[in-house]
Amino acid sequence: MRSLINPSRQNTLQNKADTDHSPNPRRRGGVDLKIATELGMDAEAGEALERICGMARSRKIAVAGRFMPDAGVSARLASLGVMENVEEADFFKYHRIIIPFSGATARQRREWEEEGHPLEDLTSPRVRRAQVALGLLKMEGSQPLVIGRHDDPESISISGGRSGSILQDTTDTSRLRFAPAFGVVCQTTLSPRRVSWLVQQLRLRWRDAQVTFLDTVSPAMAAREEALERLLVACDRVVIVGEAGEASCEALVETTLRRGKAPTLVTSADDLAALDFKNEKVALTAGAFATHEAVLAVAAGLAGR
């Protein structure tokens, strides 16, 4: 299975977590820690983060939105003087305006270019693929739909800002008007199981319509979920490093609950202080935007319990 982050970083993370931070032998009353083999940022997200950090060291830049939905990433950018969620009226103050990893709609990008704003596009390659795929389906005559979350910047950028084309649950499916053909893609950080279920519900809702689904879930997301599932058979609790409400973290929470296990979401090692672990087997995983440093710190904190 493909590594989710740069091989050298993945080896460092896995070796340190397994060798330095896993209690061995297990201490009486302590935590028996197991680390998922696939977790945290994939290579593309890591490269984008390093790229924006490199740019910040030599010029004044800002992000038209939030670069990545993670507190650790935001803190790192803030330490370098990078402003996020900057309004268009303030674009003139900066040498470069960064399009975030979640992307922007084609209309937004066109308007910014026409205004002459200097843009640097750091959209995820997976998001760009979903945008292109949806555009091709629309050109073929299909009604375009995105399986995603209504308020997620990534789903909004893929859909082109058409809120009515985003399917979050079966309520959205039931409200759809009939079309002879639907063309469907999905947010890249959703659970593959959830995406498959919603596609099935769409087909059941309109049996006489043609539904063309192009799977745009990131392979890294599927790998995170599979790695967690392998640990769930032998753990009591799951600790997920990431930000509450972020799509990939919510997908990992859903996976944990489906197996009847207790998920605990933490943004940093500091959050562990309020938690009580008593002689438990704990699985550790992380969402799509959790930093390497945050995962290592949480692993160290758990091993020290």
Automatic annotation (TrEMBL):
Q: Where is this region: Disordered?
A: 1-30
Q: Which GO terms describe its biological process?
A: dimethylallyl diphosphate biosynthetic process; isopentenyl diphosphate biosynthetic process, methylerythritol 4-phosphate pathway
Pfam families xrefs: LYTB
Q: What domain of life does the UniProt record list for this protein's source?
A: Bacteria
InterPro entries listed in its UniProt record? LytB/IspH (IPR003451)
Compositional bias of kind Polar residues:
1-16
Listed A to Z, the keywords are: 4Fe-4S, Iron, Iron-sulfur, Metal-binding
Molecular functions per Gene Ontology: 4 iron, 4 sulfur cluster binding; 4-hydroxy-3-methylbut-2-enyl diphosphate reductase activity; metal ion binding
Which cofactor is recorded for it?
Answer: [4Fe-4S] cluster
Name the UniProt record assigns to this protein: Uncharacterized protein
- The organism encoding this protein is Luteolibacter yonseiensis
